[in-house]
């Protein structure tokens, strides 16, 4: 069985949880989906509703070179300080201005439990 990938989209763990939960009863899900759901439940730090709001606020910042992949990682990690936030960008060619890091962190801290 060949599967064609039509579109790729970065998803945060709360989004994965919401999508898989909407597929039906856990007992009927294939093993890989059950494992993904369990992982999303265990490691997702915020609810799907909070994740949606956080991602919307981050996108509204319109920071140059700030991608959906970065937003998904920030949503997964929900960094607690500047060092943790900056670690998301290590190894990428993205340069974020210090004032933009502060804007991002100010928004993220509202969603930390």
Structural features, described:
This protein is an all-alpha fold. The chain has 2 domains: 13-43, no CATH class; 48-109, DNA polymerase, domain 1, CATH 1.10.150. Helix content is 56%, strand content 0%. It contains 6 helices and no strands. It has helices at 13-21, 31-43, 48-60, 68-77, 82-87, 98-109. The longest helix has 13 residues, at 31-43. The chain is globular and about 50 Å long. The termini are far apart. 21% of the residues are buried. The mean pLDDT is 91.
Give a quick rundown of the structure.
Helices cover 56% and strands 0% of the residues.
Keywords:
DNA polymerase, domain 1, mainly alpha, 56% helix, single chain, globular, 6 helices, 113 residues
Q: Structural class given helices, strands, pairing?
A: mainly alpha
How many beta-strand elements? 0
Number of helices: 6
Head-to-tail CA distance between termini: 43 Å
Major sheet, described briefly?
A: none
Portion in strands: under 5%
Coarse shape: globular
The name of the CATH architecture of the largest domain is Orthogonal Bundle
How much helical structure, as a percent, in the residues? Answer: 55-70%
Q: So what's the CATH class of the largest domain?
A: Mainly Alpha
* SSE pattern: HHHHHH
